[in-house]
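Action item from last meeting closed. Structure (111 res):
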């Protein structure tokens, strides 16, 4: 769709995606932290079980690997969810468009 600046009438418009970027980054950080924290609790139990049969080094490595995987999965999934929420904010709340000619930011309510 061709958008036009309400200030100067230019059709040189870019989308800013501020909501998507901020929400995706926030979701990624929160997901990583919660994934690592959850893995630390359950990883300690698994690690203690492995420590009995495989030794303390294997138990430590297993706990660290579990925390890393859980952090990655949590970060990716929450980042995707945050991006979706941010897209909705961009569409309905934020001034997501910017005129390259005059720098005016605006939102098209007719989308």
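Sequence:
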């Amino acid at each position: 769709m061709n958008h036009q600046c309400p200030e100067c009438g230019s059709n040189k418009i870019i989308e800013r995606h501020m909501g998507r970027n901020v929400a995706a980054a926030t979701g990624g950080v929160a997901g990583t932290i919660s994934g690592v924290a959850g893995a630390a609790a359950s990883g300690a139990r698994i690690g203690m079980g492995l420590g009995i049969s495989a030794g303390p080094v294997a138990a430590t490595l297993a706990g660290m690997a579990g925390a890393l995987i859980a952090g990655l999965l949590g970060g990716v999934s929450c980042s995707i969810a945050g991006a979706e929420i941010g897209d909705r904010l961009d569409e309905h709340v934020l001034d997501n468009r910017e005129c390259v000619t005059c720098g005016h930011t605006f939102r098209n309510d007719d989308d």
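Note appended to the action item: The mean pLDDT is 85.
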